[in-house]
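forwarding from the other thread:

> can someone predict this with NAP?

sure thing
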Amino acid sequence: MEPTIVSGKEVSNKVKDDIALEVEQIKVNGGKVPHLAAILVGDDGASRTYVNAKVKACERVGFGSTLVKLDADISEADLLTEVQKLNNNPEIDGYIVQLPLPKHIDEQKVTEAIAPEKDVDGFHPVSLGKMLLDLPSFLPATPAGIVEMLRHYNIPTEGKHCVVIGRSHIVGSPMSVLMARNAYPGNCTVTITHSRTQNLKEITNQADILIVALGKPEFLTADMVKEGATVIDVGIHRIEDSSKKSGFRLLGDVKFDEVAPKCAFISPVPGGVGPMTIASLLKNTLLAVKLNG
Ligand code: NAP
């Protein structure tokens, strides 16, 4: 079977085009141009790449953007002061603190210090609580991006069995909530799995939709997938590769070449979930202007 490739690159370009049109309209009407800020602590290569991509995406859709770069040895108290500055800055509609943070800083404390009305990553307890209650809020960017991809490709979800691998607070758990809610995409029967799950292969083989977010390169193999399934690969791994100009290549959590022939739909890495995460962040920033304006 030839699978349909779920191209996050394509869907995210469409989302960005729609946002750019809306921003043009805002400018014509003299409204507040959305402004996204990012705090980057330290000099981790992957984090720097993600943040730069976010700033570039802002430019592309006409948003204002601010990058706050801080040294890796900044104290937790000083970082919290920077967070407060962004909370109090009326020009900034939304901002993110790029994770992971250095080990001496409590990520949860920093996440909770972000003003919920500016929490465009959707990690604050208020945002997650509102999501559970189906109230308008910032959905966590990666799960929201996956929902957008399923919608774009009209992938049937109602009554389907969705298996999520991984229960992290930023991907697996919110993903399971969104797939179970009474909406499209949603209305799935959801099984959430994690490192203590027994007989994982037996469970994944029953999945109509498999969302793979455990953070292990090429973990999901063909024998774990049912014919005709939809597979969404959330994993991103930089594997050293001297033949590449960048010095690395990207792999997902799915062994794409052997899994793809069994699938009706499959998302690749790169060009799958990654670009959607940024598109969702932009959508959340536009929503922040609407909710708070
Ligand atoms: P995480 O916080 O490390 O969580 C991994 C989850 O997978 C945990 O719940 C863990 O279970 C579970 N797990 C680990 N080994 C397992 C196994 N053998 N079988 C079943 N479950 C297992 O990771 P994350 O932040 O959710 O990220 C997951 C992956 O997605 C990473 O590769 C990350 O780089 C990528 N990611 C991509 C994007 C994007 O924009 N595309 C965004 C975020 C993350 P326990 O809870 O029991 O430990």
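The longest helix spans residues 8-28. thats all i got for now
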